[in-house]
């Protein structure tokens, strides 16, 4: 049952930057004036109780949520995006997050508030997308996945910070367990199976026995086969984007969930070792190369999952789960070139810097890091380190205008000459623009 907790009130204040906390106070005032009931819901409430930082705030109102959203946007001089059909809206303010001392700092991110009218959902058939109708906060919370995500906090002036907990979510948090709200939960939405595992492993919780039995029942009913594949893909990405995806994948393997990706996909000891190697490689990259391009670490783990799957099947998986063209290109590139590059890099014969550059430069960073993680050769790893730290940033001083002045006919020859100049510069054969121009002139004769 709902109850007021002064501790929750204090934690909400400590969990948010001052600017966002003031917005929530303003939201409560607007709701009071319009005689609406407003609540913070979902993951933010869970994380406040756990003492985990979370700046993603969702507000739910009983009735006229869109009217509230328009008023809030106006008061904050922010922009408003409305989704009439679902009774939802997003307010983006001109304010930016300014975290309190000792907390996460994110001064570049504009404050965004998602707003929804309380609603209930019903499913016309298993695994279908839900149809919604407006309702009460209790029914809105009941439609959610797990008890730990089905709590709310009041925003009203008199009850600000009161915890709304109809389904004993706080009790489950204390017991460190994942529990569904009703027995049809995984049949209605099979992607909740992924979320159960993700939350279990993220917080070191346990899926309680009855919920685990419901997962197994849904798996036996082949509920993944009835779910839109892009929704499954999104859940794969979220699982692999977790701080420690290895544990979640081991749990999926235990529940026989990996087969939905490919029948031959199994979590072997070799794959687990590769996952741990990827952990170390990604950590090294982020710590040692902060100014380099940001990487999608999830796709490196997925490359490892597909390591024993042949190229035609990898192409089928990319098509089946509707991966983006960029993701598909990286996955197929890894499958085509990883072994060849490892073989070339681990040879004991000396390799010139230009040879290492030519092997690695055409590949995405994620593919290179996968190669680094997979290779057992120290020589290969050292050569990849040299690529990242020395060779990858090397550029020639001359360009197309210089070649034109030298009388080079525009076309593919430009690229061949510039590449040759770059390779000689990498190998230490030339230095400075003057030498580059001299070499380009010789190459044009």
Quick summary:
This protein has 445 residues and is of the alpha+beta class. Helix content is 52%, strand content 11%.
What does this structure look like?
The relative contact order is 0.06. The chain has 4 domains: 1-169, Beta Polymerase, domain 2 (2-Layer Sandwich); 176-260, Hydrophobic Seed Protein (Orthogonal Bundle); 266-389, cca-adding enzyme, domain 2; 400-443, no CATH class. The strands form 3 sheets. A 7-stranded mixed sheet has the order 3-4-5-2-1-8-9. It has a two-stranded antiparallel ribbon with strand order 6-7. The chain has helices at 6-15, 18-33, 43-50, 65-75, 137-142, 169-175, 185-188, 192-203, 209-220, 229-240, 245-254, 269-288, 297-305, 311-320, 325-345, 353-360, 365-374, 378-391, 400-405, 412-426, 433-443; strands spanning 37-41, 57-62, 79-83, 88-96, 110-117, 119-122, 131-134, 152-154, 163-164, 177-178, 206-207. It is of the alpha+beta class and 445 residues long.
CATH fold assignment of the largest domain: Beta Polymerase, domain 2
Rg for CA atoms? 27 Å
- Please give the order of strands in the largest beta sheet: 3-4-5-2-1-8-9
Low-confidence stretches: 99-108
What's the name of the CATH homologous superfamily of the largest domain?
Beta Polymerase, domain 2
Roughly how much helix do the residues carry, as a percent range? 40-55%
Total count of helical runs of at least 4 residues: 21
Q: Could you name the CATH class of the largest domain?
A: Alpha Beta
**Quaternary form:** single chain
Number of domains: 4
Query: Could you tell me how far the N terminus lies from the C terminus, measured between alpha carbons in angstroms?
Result: 86 Å
In this structure, how is the largest beta sheet organized?
7 strands, mixed
């Amino acid at each position: 049952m709902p109850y007021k907790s002064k501790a929750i009130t204090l934690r909400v204040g400590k969990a948010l930057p001052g600017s966002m906390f003031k917005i929530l106070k303003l939201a409560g005032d607007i709701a009071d004036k319009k005689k609406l009931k407003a609540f913070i819901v979902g993951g933010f409430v869970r994380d406040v109780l756990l003492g985990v930082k979370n700046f993603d705030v969702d507000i739910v109102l009983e009735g006229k949520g869109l009217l509230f959203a328009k008023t809030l946007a106006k008061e904050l001089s922010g922009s408003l995006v409305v989704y009439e059909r679902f009774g939802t809206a997003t307010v983006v303010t001109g304010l930016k997050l300014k975290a309190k001392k000792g907390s996460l700092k994110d001064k570049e991110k504009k404050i965004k508030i998602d707003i929804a009218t309380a609603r209930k959902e019903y499913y016309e058939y298993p695994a279908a997308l839900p149809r919604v109708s407006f309702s009460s906060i209790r029914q809105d919370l009941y439609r959610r996945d797990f008890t730990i995500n089905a709590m709310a906090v009041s925003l009203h002036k008199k009850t600000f910070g009161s915890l709304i907990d109809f389904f004993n979510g706080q009790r489950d948090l204390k017991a460190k367990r994942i529990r569904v709200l009703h027995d049809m939960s995984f049949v209605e939405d099979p992607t909740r199976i992924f979320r159960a595992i993700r939350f279990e492993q993220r917080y070191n919780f346990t899926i309680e026995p009855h919920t685990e039995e419901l997962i197994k029942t849904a798996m036996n009913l082949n509920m993944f086969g009835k779910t839109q594949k892009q929704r499954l893909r999104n859940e794969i990405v979220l699982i692999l984007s977790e701080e420690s995806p290895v544990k979640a994948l081991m749990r999926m393997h235990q529940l026989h969930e990996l087969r939905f990706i490919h029948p031959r996909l199994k979590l072997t000891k070799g794959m687990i070792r590769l996952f741990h190697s990827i952990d170390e490689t990604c950590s090294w990259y982020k710590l040692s190369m902060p100014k380099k391009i940001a990487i999608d670490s999830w796709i490196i783990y997925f490359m490892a999952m597909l390591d024993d799957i042949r190229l035609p099947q990898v192409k089928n998986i990319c098509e089946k789960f509707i991966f983006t063209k960029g993701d598909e290109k990286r996955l197929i590139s890894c499958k085509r070139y990883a072994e060849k590059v490892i073989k070339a890099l681990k040879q004991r014969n000396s390799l010139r810097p230009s040879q290492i550059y030519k092997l690695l430069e055409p590949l995405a960073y994620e593919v290179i890091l996968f190669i680094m993680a997979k290779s057992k050769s120290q020589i290969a790893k050292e050569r990849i380190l040299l690529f990242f730290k020395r060779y990858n940033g090397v550029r020639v001083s001359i360009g197309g205008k210089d070649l034109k002045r030298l009388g080079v006919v525009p076309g593919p020859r430009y690229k061949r000459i510039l590449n040759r100049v770059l390779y000689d510069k990498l190998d230490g054969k030339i230095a400075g623009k003057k030498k580059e121009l001299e070499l380009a002139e010789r190459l044009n004769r």
